[in-house]
Amino acid sequence: MTLTPQSTPEEILAAAETVKARGASAPRAGRDPINQPMINNWLEAMEDANPIYVDDDAARAAGHPGVVAPPAMAQVWTMRGLHGTRTDDDPLGLATELFDDAGYTSVVATNCDTVYHRYTRPGEEVTISSELTDVVGPKQTALGEGWFFTTRNTWRVRASGATGDDAGETVAEMDFRILKFRPAAAAPAEAESASAYDDLDPTKLIRPSASRDTQFFWDGVAAHELRIQKLPDGSLHHPPIPATWTERDADGRFPGTDYVVASGTGTVYSYVVHHAPRVPGRELPFVVALVELDEGVRMLGQLRGVDPETVAIGQPVEVEFLDFPADDDNDQPWHLYAWRAKEAK
Amino acid sequence: MSTTSTEVGTIEVGQALPPLVIDATPTFVVATALATRDFQDVHHDRDLAHQKGSKDIFVNILTDTGLVERFVTDWAGPRARITGIKLKLGVPWYAYDTLTFTGEVTAVDGSAITVAVTGTNALGKHVISTVTFTREEA
């Protein structure tokens, strides 16, 4: 089931349970075995002069079998690096995606608790596996409404020559607790990604102005629905046209526009890459795509999160709803839609 | 740098650790981020940090863990065997801000010692930590 910002806490918990039920991810090996050069870099940056990390005699005098790695480096050995990507079964990635879908798009780490079972030594090879262990929410926090979730990371070392199912000896375990939240009005900048959309500045963006003919459409965007006007003969039309065929209700008012809710998926029918002039609140260049929806109508919108060089006609896309908090100029949250490349499932 | 180590057997509850003051120059923020293999842009790219709503690049969590460890072993000496580091994260630690670690022994149970550590900067408490370690006998 895919979550939306309208999902109930029960639905969110149920989705989180499925991630929990997957258990621990497959062990992933660090890039390199534990090694002295990385230890030296680390000691230099931290200005840590503890001799047990560099001097065999000092390490032996302190009861170690030889030089050891700083225990706080446990996580360093398995960091993904500059171009690393998460594995498909990584529970932190899965849980993050889930809460992003549910509208809790911002993140801040709240706790990082590590137990060190033993010091590791150069030459040893560590693996990491992770699991989602705890999900609590929704909670009102200073940053906004959010959910706390905890992943447990386990680092293991296999004895040299070990084969088969021997997972290895656990050397360190870390509980990492994150708050995924919907930014409150004027959310403080403390969060690691306090701005939900890196490429957009909601205080400068041009906001939609709804007319009586288009109100249903923008109400739909706010409700995370892509609404397409439906004409009397059942055909669909976009952009919406004045519904001159409707009759006033008994109270003298026009009834709401008849519409269907689009699936939100389609393909790029045409596009332009906008390089100039500057557009308030948007980074240049950006892509504007005319998308042919699965329902047959075409709709314009920004195609975000893509390299303009790689956009292609026929490319599958899906709608993305953008929720902006209230700010100095808006006392209400407001909403836009855009396209994003559809990920292969 | 501080290399004054505490003699085995002299650690008591209530004992204060000598404070450790660290200036987070941009070089420090970037060098520690890279030494911890953390390439998140907010730790090395000021322009992107600004775009994401941060005042400046800021120190990463792996560095907090490393500094808390160093703060305790600077004082406790090479025989200290770190068994656990708990971090509660507070205000960010931006470049150009100075952090002061203070600590106090909160429990001594045989060879197992617990130290409460707080790292405070201009914005407030950046990290509140509990470190446990054992002391190997000579």
UniProtKB/TrEMBL annotation, chain A:
Domain ChsH2 C-terminal OB-fold intervals: 259-321
GO MF entry, a single one: DNA binding
Coiled-coil segments on the chain, per record: none
Entry keywords, A to Z: DNA-binding
Domain FAS1-like dehydratase: 30-156
Taxonomic superkingdom: Bacteria
Keyword DNA-binding carried by entry: yes
Membrane-crossing segments per the record: none
InterPro entries, alphabetized: ChsH2_C, FAS1-like_DH_region, HotDog_dom_sf, NA-bd_OB-fold
Protein name: DNA-binding protein
